[in-house]
């Protein structure tokens, strides 16, 4: 099934101490709005995120699919070949980092340049959610997930690009429907006007999320961060780490997005009852790419 995730289920069940019986228990009775074709690999992410609580897992599953149904501007038309997604990938950096020593997944994001006119808010959120999905696809259920943002190229004009409806949907999904435990949000190179950003987003953030929001200025001492959260061995060289540069890691992830194109399209078809976008055959795709519009 193309909509299934790609990680090793047996390894993940053993690592996270998850039960196949619990996965089956999530299927009966069926959950309204949840596709009957949902796979054990998909279910395992939810079960682990909810600390193996069956009732809570069923609740989060329902929220997850409702959020995706009610936010088509953020969750539909996720073809990596589309012009909108390509524009995001050209102007922003997105990629998962290696799991931390504690087993946490890490998803990184920053603006590639400071020009606000290149920033399209809804499409940027969509591409970010696709990056989270690509992380779950390859890494599977984990003890938690860390979001790592770099604000180096963020300016005041970017605030004018924010869509308040999408902000609400963004945090609703991350806080109530995400199939992963959000352990921390780390903001690097925090800007001087972050208080204005916080003023905008605070009405939509749960108190427990504010408690795991960590801000790091450009001249901050990062020793405790390296020790407690993400070691240098798991960070880009731009952030004092031992990995490739942000640009190189992003370029590597573009190849992963390309590889996962069938998954993104199939997952959308799964949610939409096979009414979503279909894979374009290679010959048609080549023909479309050869066309130019004057």
Automatic annotation (TrEMBL):
One of its GO terms (molecular function) is phosphatidylinositol bisphosphate binding. Gene3D superfamilies: CRAL-TRIO lipid binding domain (3.40.525.10). Coiled coil: none annotated. One of its GO terms (cellular component) is membrane. Residues 82-247 form the CRAL-TRIO domain. InterPro entries: CRAL-TRIO_dom (IPR001251), CRAL-TRIO_dom_sf (IPR036865), CRAL/TRIO_N_dom_sf (IPR036273). SUPFAM superfamilies: CRAL/TRIO domain, CRAL/TRIO N-terminal domain. It comes from the Eukaryota. Transmembrane segments: none annotated. This is CRAL-TRIO domain-containing protein. It comes from Anopheles epiroticus.
């Amino acid at each position: 099934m193309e909509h299934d995730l790609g990680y090793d289920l047996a390894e993940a069940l053993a690592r996270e101490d998850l039960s196949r019986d619990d996965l089956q228990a999530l299927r009966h009775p069926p959950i309204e709005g949840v596709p009957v074709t949902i796979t054990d690999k998909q279910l395992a992410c939810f079960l682990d995120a909810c600390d193996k609580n069956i009732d809570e897992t069923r609740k989060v599953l329902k929220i997850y699919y409702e959020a995706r149904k009610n936010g088509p501007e953020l969750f539909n038309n996720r073809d990596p070949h589309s012009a909108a997604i390509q524009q995001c990938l050209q102007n922003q950096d997105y990629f998962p980092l290696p799991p931390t020593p504690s087993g946490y997944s890490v998803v990184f994001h920053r603006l590639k340049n400071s020009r606000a006119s290149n920033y399209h808010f809804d499409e940027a959120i969509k591409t970010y959610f696709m990056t989270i999905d690509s992380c779950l696809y390859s890494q599977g259920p984990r003890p938690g997930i860390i979001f790592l943002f770099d604000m180096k190229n963020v300016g005041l004009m970017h605030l004018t690009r924010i869509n308040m409806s999408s902000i609400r949907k963004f945090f609703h999904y991350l806080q109530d429907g995400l199939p992963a435990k959000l352990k921390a949000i780390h903001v690097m190179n925090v800007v001087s006007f972050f208080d204005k950003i916080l003023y905008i987003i605070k009405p939509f953030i749960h108190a427990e999320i504010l408690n795991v929001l960590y801000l790091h200025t450009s001249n901050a001492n990062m020793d405790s961060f390296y020790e407690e959260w993400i070691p240098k061995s798991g960070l880009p060289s731009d952030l004092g780490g031992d990995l490739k540069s942000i640009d190189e890691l992003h370029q590597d992830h573009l190849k992963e997005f390309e590889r996962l194109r069938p998954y993104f399209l199939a997952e959308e078809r799964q949610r939409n009852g096979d009414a979503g976008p279909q894979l374009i055959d290679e010959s048609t795709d080549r023909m479309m790419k050869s066309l130019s519009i004057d």
